[in-house]
């Protein structure tokens, strides 16, 4: 397998809690796509990785030039502007310096639902405590900013052609995955007749999730994630959850709930961005019933 002559990269840039894990696992089964050994390498946002250079990045794949057309990864930190600001700039830099191509998938869901899922996940991982993130009206503010989809997209549309950016919806991944996956294949100009595994199970739900101790993140990154991709898609979650239990503290029994006051605050924050998402990026938001 060659690793240094990759010309086409496919990045699932987010949004977090919108089905990126499920989408990554689906696409990893396509014979023309080489999935990264770690789902979220965060090369373009993690200083220690970025400083190792492009050759380090290409070694994340077992890439076969004769069969693979795209190298896939899915780092949701690439769409967490303004907390993490440099991803689009660095991707553009690599494209210019290395003469390689990038295509992007950005999958979104009802932004309020995404915030609730984000906050539930925050209860599990204690991000707001670990990273000293600001809390506004009882909500980690980064959860709101991550749901400002137009703001996140702007950084990529400013650097890359709109033809290289595909915006998808989480609900379509749940209800009609075959149609959505065909849309992706057409976008990538790869075999759209490939039959993907029929795995409708949600890969990364928040409710019922295991709250892990401090040892889990490193074990997941360097051991679990690199190995789990070799397992059948329909067994990955069960096996991963069994392993996670070895690092468990407790189980998240219910989702975070927004009070009426918090909901009004969230909508005041999101309203202008939702209008931009519809008017500037052509996303039909009517099914969300928010504005």
Description:
With 291 residues, this protein is an alpha/beta fold. 43% of the residues lie in helices and 13% in strands. Strands 2-3-1-4-7 form a five-stranded parallel beta sheet, with helices on both faces. Strands 5-6 form a two-stranded antiparallel ribbon. A hairpin with a 2-residue loop joins β5 (135-136) and β6. The radius of gyration is 19 Å and the shape is globular. The termini are far apart.
Please describe the biggest sheet, giving its number of strands, its sense, and whether it closes into a barrel.
5 strands, parallel
Average predicted confidence as pLDDT: 86
Give the N-to-C terminal Cα separation. Answer: 51 Å
Uncertain segments of ≥5 residues (pLDDT<50)?
none
Based on secondary structure, the structural category is: alpha/beta
What general outline do the C-alpha atoms trace? globular
Count of DSSP strands: 9
Measured by DSSP, the beta-strand proportion falls in 5-15%
Describe what is shown at a glance.
It contains 13 helices and 9 strands.
Layout of secondary structure:
Elements: E1 8-14, H1 20-27, E2 33-35, H2 47-50, H3 54-58, E3 70-73, H4 87-98, E4 101-108, H5 111-125, H6 127-130, E5 135-136, E6 139-140, H7 141-146, H8 149-157, E7 165-169, H9 170-175, H10 177-188, E8 210-212, H11 216-228, H12 236-244, E9 248-251, H13 260-281
Parallel strand pairs: 1-3, 1-4, 2-3, 4-7
Antiparallel strand pairs: 5-6, 8-9
């Amino acid at each position: 397998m060659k690793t240094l002559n990759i010309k086409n990269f496919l990045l699932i840039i987010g949004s977090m809690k919108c089905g990126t894990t499920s989408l990554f696992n689906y696409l990893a089964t396509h014979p023309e796509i080489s999935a990264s050994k770690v789902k979220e390498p965060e090369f373009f946002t993690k200083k220690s990785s970025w400083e190792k250079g492009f050759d380090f990045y290409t070694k994340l794949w077992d890439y076969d030039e004769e069969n693979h057309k795209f190298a896939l990864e899915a780092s949701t930190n690439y769409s967490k502007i303004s907390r993490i600001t440099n991803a689009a700039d660095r991707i553009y830099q690599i494209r210019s310096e290395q003469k390689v191509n990038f295509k992007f998938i950005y999958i979104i869901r009802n932004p309020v639902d995404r915030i609730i899922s984000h906050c539930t996940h925050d209860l599990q991982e204690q991000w707001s405590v670990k990273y000293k993130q600001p809390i506004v009206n009882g909500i980690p503010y980064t959860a709101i900013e991550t749901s400002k989809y137009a703001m996140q997209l702007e950084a990529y549309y400013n650097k890359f052609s709109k033809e290289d950016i595909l915006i998808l919806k989480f609900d379509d991944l749940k209800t009609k995955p075959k149609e959505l996956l065909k849309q992706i294949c057409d976008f990538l100009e790869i075999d759209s007749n490939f039959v993907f595994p029929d795995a409708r199970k949600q890969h990364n739900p928040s409710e019922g999730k295991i709250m892990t101790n401090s040892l889990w993140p490193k074990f997941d990154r360097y051991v679990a994630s690199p190995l789990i991709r070799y397992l059948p898609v329909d067994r990955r979650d069960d096996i991963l959850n069994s392993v996670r239990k070895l690092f468990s503290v407790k189980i998240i029994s219910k989702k975070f709930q927004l009070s009426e006051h918090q909901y009004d605050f969230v909508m005041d924050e999101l309203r202008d961005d939702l209008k931009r998402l519809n008017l500037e990026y052509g996303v039909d938001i009517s099914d969300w019933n928010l504005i």
